[in-house]
Design brief:
single chain; two-stranded antiparallel ribbon; two-stranded parallel sheet; about 325 residues
């Protein structure tokens, strides 16, 4: 189907069209923005999940189509999607919330609190920045073709937002134009980035990275439909090269080996319990499993990504044709 690697990605392509369609509708009818902006927030978030999936298992058989799709997702997700590769595929999956992982949940405290969760985006983004810069530096020095792709993705991302902002102002004047662009593209992009980081925090806080209990999962069918099976996080870490459509089955295969404390159903009940009720009823809050991510029971400490060779496929870490950057 249209050169897809997996026919299940027909819904990925449908979402890739529906999301921008709602933006067009709001540009044409700014009076609808106050009713529909939250839909744009959802689609921006879903584009982040799709970008994550795409960088593990490329959507198309054709390399050029995958490059184009990465650019398209970047516009609406809110940041060039190549950044998933150095920060997530090659770093987070290697260290899984232990020393060396730029996205650790315990950088300043291992306490599970709403203030830590809410500010995790800013802390994690700061430390991921070094990985992104190092990745770009190595691409510039050793892989000019990749470096051009990275620059192109930045140009598409920034250029598209500049054009859409200018278009909104041209259509509706400065005040209304800023309002339309801000609520249909600016706010959704920030919402997507912040929420994706929050998901990562909640998927790993107080889990035990030294065992099969490395990730928290949510099995709600509704949640996993709208977020392309992103709730099956333990399954994803066990098989990062598995297509997202297969993760429910992987989850069912491994869930018997996972601590019940890490098997959730409703994400919203989890948030309610952890962030609204647990401050008053501590017994409802999560407890650290195992020795803690900062205490390696093997007595070994891995080096960070900067000291490792970086490999990059056409879209992510599970592609067929790898290019080594040294």
């Amino acid at each position: 189907m249209m050169g897809l690697k997996n026919p299940g990605d027909w819904r990925t392509l449908l979402w890739a069209v529906l999301g921008p369609s709602f933006i067009v509708l709001q540009y044409m009818h700014p009076e609808l923005v106050k009713y529909l902006f939250w839909i744009s927030c959802y689609f921006a978030l879903s584009f982040g999940v799709i970008a994550h999936n795409h960088n593990h298992v490329p959507t198309f058989k054709n390399k050029a189509a995958n490059d184009w799709f990465g650019n398209w997702l970047s516009i609406f997700y809110g940041y060039p999607t190549f950044a998933w590769i150095p920060t997530h595929n090659l770093n987070h999956h290697r260290y899984v919330n232990t020393a060396g992982d730029a996205t650790i949940t315990w950088r300043f405290t291992n306490r599970h609190r709403i203030d830590v969760a809410a500010t995790y985006f800013f802390v994690s983004s700061y430390y991921q920045g070094d990985l992104i810069k190092e990745f770009i530096r190595k691409a510039k020095a050793n892989n000019p073709k990749l470096y051009v792709k990275i620059l192109s993705q930045y140009a598409v991302w920034l250029g598209a937002h500049a054009i859409m902002l200018a278009l909104a102002i041209a259509l509706h004047g400065v005040s209304t134009g800023l309002y339309v662009w801000g609520l249909t593209m600016g706010l959704p992009a920030f919402f997507a980035l912040w929420t994706i980081m929050l998901f990562n925090y909640d998927q790993h806080v107080h889990a035990d990275p030294w065992s099969q209990n490395h990730s928290r999962s949510w099995s709600s069918r509704i949640l996993n439909f709208w977020l392309f099976n992103n709730g099956y996080h333990a399954a994803h870490h066990e098989r990062p090269g598995e297509h997202w459509t297969n993760l429910r089955q992987v989850h069912m295969d491994i869930e018997g080996k996972i601590d019940p404390a890490l098997k959730e159903v409703s994400l919203f009940w989890y948030w309610t319990r952890e962030y609204l009720l647990a401050p008053f009823f501590p017994s409802l809050g999560s407890k650290q499993l195992g020795p803690g991510p900062m205490n390696d029971p093997r007595g070994a400490r891995k080096e960070g990504l900067a000291a490792a060779d970086i490999e990059l496929g056409e879209a992510g870490s599970n592609s067929d044709n790898f290019v080594r950057l040294t």
